[in-house]
Structure formats: structure tokens, C-alpha cells
Amino acid sequence: MKRIIALLAAACMIIMFAGCQNDGKKATADEASTEQTTEAEKVTKVSTPYADLCVPESFDKNVTNKVSKKDPYTLTFSSKKDNTVLFDIIFNGKGDALMGTIVGEKENTIVYMNVPKLNKKSDGYEDNLGYQQGVNTIVKYLEKDYDFRVDEAIEKQDSETFDVKTKVVTLKYPKKWEKKVKVTEKEDTVSFKAGDTRLFDLRFSKGDGNLLGTYKDTPIYVVEYKVKTDEQKAMQQDVNVIINNLSKDKDFKIN
Predict the structure, then answer these.
(1) Rounded Cα gap, residues 201 and 190, in angstroms
(2) Which residues contact 227 (CB under 8 A, 6 or more apart)?
(3) Per residue, what are the HEC states of the chain?
(4) Would strands 73-79 and 85-91 be described as parallel, antiparallel, or unpaired?
(5) pLDDT averaged over the chain?
(6) Per DSSP, what are the bridge partners of residue 193?
(7) How many CB atoms lie within 10 A of CB 61?
(8) φ and ψ of 216, to 5 deg
(9) pLDDT tens digits along 95-151
(10) Most buried pick, 74, 87, 117, 124, via CB within 10 A?
(11) Burial state string for 147-172 with b = 16 or more CB within 10 A and e = fewer than 16
(12) Secondary structure (H, E, C), 217-246
């Protein structure tokens, strides 16, 4: 199901290019293979413990990569000519812009990036600006080769839930939030709050918000609010747990 809650927006536009074929092998990040895919694609691979990153073939002689931090695992790409840092790829840590999530069978890997502003007065400015587009290449190839969700930070879901009983339907929300999220029902609205911060409402009558579907002919809308912390964003994101469980009910019809 298409995600209802948008967690974070990337700080830069992502320009998509052609994908490359994943060979399924993983190695340490200190090993940067120069395996080329097809002649038309012109890419090479940089191996990490999390994924093989496909970068433009032009990086071979012009851009270096090294592990600049092990926790969170950070791969830094720099210009060989003047040592200018072009961008960082950060696995399971935080960065300036969210790239997305590599969804795995046992665990997910959330990927961020840092793309610093370049000095326009430097001699290599135009070349370095072009190399920075390599982050866009990486994103596209991750999406092709893995179950990669662009612009989404997806924590591995705990399947344990608790019941939220309403006059329309019993909802299921993650048990890990049971003591942190206050749920109240008033008239035709069920509100989810973390302290004084409203996370989202589910409404059982026509009005504002996105229509999720109908339960026994009663419409269910979701309305989201601005939140303050990463934890609150995760709580807000977990409206999808409610939606996924609703979708399994034969009396719920998806909009």
C-alpha cells in the first residue's frame, strides 16, 4: 500500500538514471570493485556491508571513496584532484538528507547523505559539481537492485499490537507506543497524541484528510499534523500498522 505519512523530504532533487544488475555479493567497504555492467550503462560498484553502490564510471580515475566513520558507517567520496569532499553516504545514522531505506528480510537499513556546498571560486568547481550527481546514480541503482524505498525512513516493525476500540471498528496500533501515545475518541474522531503533540486523527465522517477506505460503509479518513521529534515521526508513521491491519478485514474496503 502506498505510504500515507511522509516522514522526511530529501534536501536535494534526485535525478534518476539507468540501473545496474546486482551480483548479490557483499564485501567490506574497504574493497571498491571496478566491475563494469553493460557498455551502455558505464557504472562501477563500490561494495559495503549493506549494499553494493553503483557509481558513474568516471569516478574510477577522478573520485576516491573511504570509510570515514564506522559508527554510523559512513562512506565519503572526494575529488582526487583537490581532495574536495563531494558527498557522504551514511548507513543507519543521521545526515543532512534522507535517501531512503533498504528493506531486508530481518532488518532494514536507513540511508542518509551529506552533500556539502561547493566553492564556486575553486578551479575544479564545475567538475566537482558533476561528480556530486553521483548520489543520484546511487539512489536509482539502489532502487533497481534492492527493495529500496526512496525518501522513506522505515524502521523494522514490531508485530505486537494493542487494541484501540472505537464505536466503528477496533484498531490495532504498535504495543511499543502504548504507554507513550494517548488515544482519545470524541464524537466521530479518534486522536493520537504524544504529550501535547498531535500525531494524527482518524475520522469516521466526511471532512479533511485522506480517505483510506470504508468499514461497513463508514468512511475512514486520516489527518496528520506537524510533529517535533524523530520518535514522534515514527509514531506518526505507524498509522500504517493500523491501515495494514484494517486491510486484512473483509469488511474494510480500500479507497
Answers:
(1) 6
(2) 194, 197, 199, 233, 235, 236
(3) CCCCCCCCCCCCCCCCCCCCCCCCCCCCCCCCCCCCCCCCCCEEEEECCCCEEEEECCHHHHEEEEEEEECCEEEEEEECCCCCEEEEEEECCCCCEEEEEECCCCCCEEEEEECCCCCCCCCCHHHHHHHHCHHHHHHHHHHHHCCEEECCCCCCCCCCEEEEECCCCEEEEEHHHCCCCEEEEECCEEEEEECCEEEEEEECCCCCCEEEEEECCEEEEEEECCCCCHHHHHHHHCHHHHHHHHCCCCCEEEC
(4) antiparallel
(5) 84
(6) 182, 198
(7) 7
(8) 50, 50
(9) 999 999 999 888 899 999 999 999 999 999 999 999 999 999 999 999 999 999 998
(10) 87
(11) ebbbbbbbeeeeeebeebebebbebb
(12) CEEEEEEECCCCCHHHHHHHHCHHHHHHHH
List CB contacts of 33: < 8 A, sequence separation 6 or more: 27, 44, 45, 46, 47, 52
- β-pairing, 197-203 vs 63-70, is unpaired
pLDDT in tens, 29-45: 444 444 444 445 689 99
pLDDT digits (tens, 9 = 90+) for 72-106: 999 999 999 999 999 999 999 999 999 999 998 88
Beta bridge partners of 163: 172
pLDDT given for residue 157 in this prediction:
60
Residue 48 clears pLDDT 60, i.e. is over it = yes
For residue 237, the one-letter residue type is Q
For residue 83, give the amino acid letter.
N
Q: Which three cell numbers stand for residue 181?
A: 501515545
Residue 37's nearest CA partner among 126, 148, 141, 124 is 141
CB of 17 closer than 8 Å to CB of 136 = yes
C-alpha grid cell, residue 76:
565519503
